[in-house]
Design a protein that fits this description.
With about 130 residues, the protein is an alpha/beta fold. Helix content is about 35%, strand content about 20%. The longest helix has 13 residues, at about 15-25. It holds the Pfam family Response_reg.
């Protein structure tokens, strides 16, 4: 039996966290969330299979967090999708080591496609 994939959402907007969590749980994912991005840097066990990380969180830059995660051998392999309401951050998201970038507001199908591609290596339309 296939293990349920765990997705961690790091975003300081409770509305987004709630909506995305509900939708991902409906899709069969195990979802955890935090509004404190720096907590991610202390992860050593029970690591998520994928991280959905907001670039602008109060007092924190998701790109810095992503860079540190990718520099850490424990968390390096976790795919990271950086999310932002600003389109001009795509390049800096890639430079921070993000596996993908998603612009807010986003369609849930776009998010699901990116998650599926990163977790299962599937190429989906869109």
């Amino acid at each position: 039996m296939e293990k349920i994939k765990k997705i961690m959402i790091a975003d300081d907007d409770p509305g987004i966290v709630d909506a995305v969590s509900m939708m991902l749980e409906f899709e069969g994912y195990d979802v955890a969330s935090t509004m404190n991005g720096s907590l991610l840097l202390g992860m050593t066990s029970d690591l998520p299979d994928l991280l959905l990380l907001d670039i602008w969180m109060s007092g924190e830059d998701g790109r810095d967090i992503c860079k540190q995660l990718k520099d850490n051998r424990v968390t390096r392999g976790i795919p990271v999708i950086l999310v932002s309401a600003s389109t001009d951050l795509r390049k800096s998201a890639e430079e921070a080591g993000a596996n993908d970038f998603l612009e807010k507001p986003f369609e849930m199908n776009d998010l699901l496609g990116k998650i599926d591609r990163l977790l299962n290596g599937k190429m989906t339309a869109g």
